[in-house]
Specification:
42% of the residues lie in helices and 17% in strands. It has helices at 6-15, 31-49, 66-72, 99-113, 120-127, and strands at 23-28, 55-60, 79-83, 87-93. Strand 3 (79-83) and strand 4 form a beta hairpin. The longest helix has 19 residues, at 31-49. The protein is globular and about 45 Å long.
């Protein structure tokens, strides 16, 4: 049974008109640790990727593909790495449903274009930072 409704698919297709380059969604999945959540995550990612020709999916098992998981900095499942022309460090842990789903779609668009939707003032402030910053956003169902 599909996770996305017809209405969801239509809305995502409309958003994906903004895609300008290829995107790879690297899914980290491990049946033994988080079976149902990993299956849900894989299904969701495949459904989303099926809505644009420029999106590909690669599924890795971190227990088997240890070096790749380490290279991505992924140490838990389910996880998704969103890559465009390069790896921007965008990661999702857990299944991005509900409010997090729109963030996944936005991340795919940003990875595709290579340009975050930020104001010039924000970009200037970020350029002024003296060192890299690791930002983590945590969400919980309400």
């Amino acid at each position: 049974m599909p996770m996305l409704t017809d209405r969801d698919r239509a809305a995502v297709r409309k958003e994906f008109e903004k895609l300008t380059g290829p995107v790879k969604l690297v899914v980290f999945s491990q049946e033994l640790l988080a079976g149902e959540r990993c299956r849900q995550n894989e299904q969701l990612v495949r459904e989303v990727a099926g809505l644009a020709d420029t999106i590909t999916v690669e599924v890795l098992n971190p227990a088997i593909d240890r070096e790749r998981a380490q290279a991505y900095g992924v140490d838990q499942v389910p996880a998704i790495a969103v890559e465009g022309a390069r790896d921007y460090g965008i990661r999702f842990y857990g299944v991005p449903l509900g409010y997090e789903f729109s963030n996944l779609i936005d991340a795919i668009i940003v990875a595709s274009t290579g340009e975050p939707a930020l104001s010039e003032d924000t970009k200037a402030s970020l350029r002024a930072l003296a060192a890299d910053v690791d930002i983590k956003v945590f969400a919980t169902p309400t």
